[in-house]
Amino acid sequence: MIKDFNFYAPTRVVFGKDSENQIGHLLKNNGASRVLLHYGGGSAERSGLLDVIRKQLRDAGLHFVELDGVVPNPLLSKVYEGIRLCKQEQVDFILAVGGGSVIDSAKAIGYGVPYAGDVWDFWDGKAKPTACLPIGVVLTIPAAGSEMSSSCVITKDEELLKRGVNSDLCRCRFAVMNPERTYTLPAYQTAAGATDIMMHTMERYFSNYEDMTLTDAISEALLRTVMDAARIVLKEPENYRYRAQIMWAGSLAHNDLTECGTEKDFATHRLEHELSALFGVTHGAGLAALWPSWARYVKDKHLSRFVQFAVNVMGVTNDFTHPEETAEQGIQAIERFYHEIGMPTNLTELLGRKITDEEIDILVDKCSRGGTITVGAMEVLGQKEMRDIYEMAK
Length: 394
Known about the structure:
It is a single chain. By secondary structure, the chain is of the alpha/beta class. The chain has helices at 23-29, 43-46, 49-59, 76-89, 100-112, 187-205, 213-235, 240-252, 267-279, 283-298, 303-312, 323-340, 347-351, 357-367, 383-392, and strands at 12-15, 34-39, 63-67, 93-98, 135-139, 151-156, 161-166, 174-177. α5 (100-112) links the parallel β4 (93-98) and β5 (135-139). The longest helix is centred in the middle third of the chain and has 23 residues, at 213-235. The chain starts with 11 loop residues before the first strand and ends with a helix.
């Protein structure tokens, strides 16, 4: 069966060396006059990238204000700060410089400026976005794919609630991507980013809709390419060719291309959101720690798909007489890959200690919103199934 789909990818991608030198032109072409320059820590400053961008803004005659301090798992408190600043300065365009956390923070601010109520209403399900300030991106961390996606994930500080909102309103007008700007990423962040990119693809590949051969082939090629590239850049951090593969794959993995004709599952993402909200772990690492347990929990009902993954992605020899063993070997192969690049494959490796039963109770309660929702599509997970998977991942 092939699912009907509507593919929409309006973001202009400006890719390559020195592409950041086009920012002023891009902003002017998108009608910007008063810009919020939004970024995270000091890496963009230390690398000189922010100075390049500031010069672009000044040369283009644009008024701009700055807001830094975005952290991994971006916080609602920073979003509130950005909304206040944008309203005060009459900002009409947001320029995010960084990775998924900065971009998601920018999107949330963009939602909040034209909204009369509390912007958290959108993540709490009390309202739906109807407008968003235009957003552009200078990407420095390929991982989340937020530069081309409709997704925005924010953590509410006080309650440690990590939730997502999807709307085409927040899709970026442009994304500037220079692979050279990723050379200085720490190895762990590079590996976690590659894992997140792969998981965005796998969350769509593992679907009840199995007849879209072309989309499957795109997904499989993307996964193989990212694995090969990750191995190389961890040894050769300034290998432009393979940094470029990872950067472009990050966008393609989450702009819905690998969802055309299929149905996304995202149960592992939903389970992981609670991990990173509660423990502050790196998102990609949390995904690596959970996925093998999710896969083993659901594979027996979807053997053909897991066999296809094992053979076409992980290079496992197909044992036609024992499909269960072929599927299991595929899961073991990706566990070996995760370890090869320094990622965990269970919660003990992720946290450095055993997770407690009380902590699992908290994770299940938050993920199910007190038992009021389920997650997943390939297999729908309620509280019992969530608990089983967290327990398996210990």
